[in-house]
Structure formats: C-alpha cells, structure tokens
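--- STAGE predict ---
source: upstream dedup step, 1 unique chain passed
mode: sequence only
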Amino acid sequence: MEFVKDILKGSLVGVANIIPGVSGGTMAVSMGIYDKLITAITHIFKDIKKSMRILLPIAIGALLGIGILAFVIKWLFANYPVQTNLLFIGLIIGGLPIIWRKTKEQRITAGAVIAFVIFLAIVVFFPILGNGQGSEVQLVPSILMFIKLFVVGVIASATMVIPGVSGSMMLMIMGYYNPILNTITGFISSLAAGDIAGVMSYMWILIPFGIGVVLGIFAIAKFVEYVFDHAPAIAYCAILGLITGSPIAILMMANITNVTIMTVITSAIAFIIGCFVALKLGE
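--- STAGE serialize ---
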C-alpha cells in the first residue's frame, strides 16, 4: 500500500515538473517526501538498497506522471485552465502544514526571516522574467547542441529539486520548454506506435538532456543536504517562502480571463480537492 501511495506522490511530482510555474520540489514537500527523497539521493552509494526502496516507487510515479498524465494535464489546461491552476494551488497549500510544523521546530532567527522574505520574492519574480522569454531554440544535431542540452538538463534539474522554483519555467525562459516537451511526447507516441526509427530520432536530444538532469539532481541534492545539516532554520524558512510564493506565481502565469460564476464554483471545488489530496498523501 505504501509503495502504491509513493507512486501516486511521484506522479504528482512528475506532472508538476512539466507545468510552467509549478515546482516539482514544492510538490515533493507538499506530499511529505522531500526530506527522504534528498537523503535517498545523497546516500544512494552508501546504502543502495534503502535508497532504492524510496526512489523506485517515486521514480516510477514521476515517469508515469510525465509520460501519461502529461497528455491529460495538457488537455485540462487547454479546456479548464482556471480550475486546473486552482487544483495545483490546492495541492501546494495542502502541503503547507507539513513544512510549517517542521519550521516551528527550529529556532527562528533574523537570518531565517530574511531568507523567507528573499525566497518568497524570488519565486514571485520568476513569472515576470518568464514574460520576457526569448524565441524557441531549434534543436539541430551538433556537438554544440549536445553540450547545450546537457547544460540545460543540469539547470532544469536543479530548479526541479529546489522547492518553489519551476524547472519548466526556466526551460521556457531559455526557449527550450516546447522543444523538449514536444520531444518527450513525440518519443512516447513513437514508442507506443512501435516506430523504432522515430524513437531513435529523439534519442540524441533525450540522452544529453537526461544525463544533465541526473547529474544536476545529485549535485543540488548534496547542496540542499549540506544546508539542512548546517542551517536548518534558514533552510526551512527559505522553503516556506518559496512555497508561500508559489500560488502567487501560478496565478501570475495563469493569464485568467472570462471568469463566470460556474468557473468560480468549479475552481473552488478543484482547490478543495487539491488541498484534500495533498493532506491525505502527505500524512
């Protein structure tokens, strides 16, 4: 039962990573798996069995979330953008009690309060930066593009691990979001159709990007663990600031128009469902 529960949590983290404005790290905190996820990653070579018991169901869920639910979420955003945004805000808000309890256990200093304010401001600033995104990158096979995709993977993974910072938003700012998303959906479609040539045509993009993502996750996880070990109050307050700012960032990215009474009602229901799911999965 716990294995299935962790798969569900992982699927939400995976979906969150592909939605601009929503942070996979924030979703991991909301689901109550962030701490053990970081520990499992940083100690994988010291205790591989224990780490794999934690990482395997979450990884399976994340892959399912990206590979299957991505199509569902894409449809929901196209047809019910307000309700879908409120659902994710509910998932984030529902996870706040978990991080708040851990923050209260720390001795709050002036530095911790400053960290809260700074990181809240950072996550709110990102959508403003995103509005000035450049043109999309054309993915043409070359050694230089291979290196660029590796670097983009490292940057994207770092923002995926840090709560409150959207990796997909960073990709959008750099002009890689739609090209990478189209590559992932194209790869999955080719795989489902048994089109080997189509699958291979996407591998030159996915391999360097994937290597960058994996190495980036390990590097930033080590850094996060160091901060938690040496300055836990600052770390928890910074995360609290990032999570508190996330709903604001999502609403800024949502570009909400033509709101009706029915939209308000269904959005409120979606928000409540999100809060309930986060509270239950985070228990």
